[in-house]
Structures are given as C-alpha cells and as structure tokens.
From TrEMBL:
InterPro entries: Calycin (IPR012674), Nitrobindin (IPR045165), THAP4-like_heme-bd (IPR014878). It catalyses: peroxynitrite = nitrate. It comes from Spodoptera frugiperda. It comes from the Eukaryota. This is Peroxynitrite isomerase THAP4-like. SUPFAM superfamilies: Lipocalins.
Length: 168
C-alpha cells in the first residue's frame, strides 16, 4: 500500500491554481445556445483542498432563470505537472467528463478541453460531444468563467459566461 504524503506536500503541487480556493458567487451570469432562449443564472463555485490527496475539490450549484431545476457539478482538479491541469467532473444532467489543459501563470488562467465525455443512457438530446472551459482571475476577488459546448447538431459555441466575486 502506498504511503500518503503529508498534507502540506500534497497541496504544494496545487500552488499554481491555489487562487481558486474559496467560495465564489456570480455577480453576472448569462448564457445562450442556438436552440434555447437566452437565460441568466446564479451560481456558487467552491474550491477546497481534498483531505490528504493532491486534489482540489470542485463544487458548483447553479439556478437557471428559465428552469426550476438546480444544476450541480462535482469533481476535482489535479496538476500532474506545474503547467498541466486536469478536471474530472460529473453533472446531475447525466454527463461525466474528463478535461485536460494548461495553466498560464502570467495571466492566472486555466484552459481546459474535454478528453472524454460519457452520458447516462437516458440523457436528453442533443448529445454533448465536446466542451471547453476557461477560468481566469481578473482581480484578487473577481473570477471570469466561460464554458463552450459542441453538440451533435451545433458547432463549438459559447454557452455560459459568468463573473464571480469571492465571498470566502
């Protein structure tokens, strides 16, 4: 059985993205897609160190202006090396995705692209085929988030954009 590193050692590899730590709440969140009406959303993002693992736990809860259903995403970030970032996430809409990308220290930005996407058998169509997302720190307490989606009937298109304020 492998020996777990000390908590401090586990989290040192996450230092390049530690600016995500805490809870963030939308100040302005909006979205649109070719076959849906434009909408606003309220979302909370939370990033915390995973206990005794070199991971950054990620939780998102969103309320959509056009639906009563809450949307959830849970997952974790991992940094296999100082410039590579991976995110594994699962959504209550039936999708699970593995994403990989790069971190740019000079502008505090993470860009991710889907590597694999799986869906439960009864997920609604059109199916999501690929995703991209960008997290960018605009100021110490302001985060910009963009998510792009490609489905079986649409090209890669900006789906949501949010500006978040750090609250914790």
């Amino acid at each position: 059985m492998p020996v777990k590193p000390a908590k401090q050692d586990c989290h040192e590899c996450l230092d390049p993205i530690a600016w995500l730590l805490g809870r963030w709440v939308t100040e302005d969140g909006h979205g649109s897609y070719p076959y849906t009406p434009s909408f606003y959303f309220h979302e909370e993002l939370e990033f915390i160190y995973s206990e005794d693992e070199p991971l950054l736990d990620f939780m998102a809860t969103a309320k959509h202006s056009n639906r009563s259903l809450s949307l959830y995403e849970r997952g974790y970030f991992h940094m296999p090396n100082p410039r590579r970032v991976q995110l594994i996430g699962t959504h209550n809409n039936g999708y699970t995705a593995s994403e990989a990308g790069r971190y740019r220290a000079s502008i505090k930005q993470i860009k991710l692209k889907s590597v694999t996407i799986t869906a439960k058998p009864d997920v609604l169509r059109p199916y999501v085929l690929k995703t991209r997302r960008i997290f960018k720190l605009l100021s110490p307490n302001t985060l910009e988030y963009k998510r792009y989606v490609q489905t079986e009937i649409t090209p890669m298109t900006l789906y949501v954009r949010g500006i978040y304020k750090k609250v914790e």
